[in-house]
Recover the amino acids of this structure.
């Protein structure tokens, strides 16, 4: 195995633990929770990331970037109805959000 990959995984695990430690002290720290969600997505832990982003949105419901990431995670998890709802909320919050519009359109097209 490539030592950089091993080192990267080690670094990522340490970063995840450090972010979780910060959130134990400050659970509503939006930037930290968003970064944790991003790291978890990068590690392929999409379900864990969705849970973190959901918590973030309970504290900060107007955080459009977090809502967009949650919507993408839900879509990736096959939770299409929830993803559609989140994409629609992003579009209500930011009517010109091209990424949310495109992803919503794509998701609706593939649904039975």
């Amino acid at each position: 195995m490539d030592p950089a990959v091993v080192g990267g995984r080690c670094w990522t695990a340490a970063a995840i633990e450090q972010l979780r430690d910060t959130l134990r002290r400050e659970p509503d720290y939006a930037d930290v929770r968003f970064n944790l969600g991003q790291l978890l997505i990068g590690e392929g832990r999409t379900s864990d990331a969705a849970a973190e982003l959901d918590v973030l949105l309970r504290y900060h419901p107007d955080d459009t970037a977090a809502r967009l990431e949650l919507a993408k995670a839900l879509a990736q998890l096959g939770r299409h109805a929830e993803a559609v709802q989140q994409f629609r909320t992003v579009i209500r919050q930011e009517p010109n959000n091209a990424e949310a519009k495109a992803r919503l359109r794509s998701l609706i097209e593939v649904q039975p």
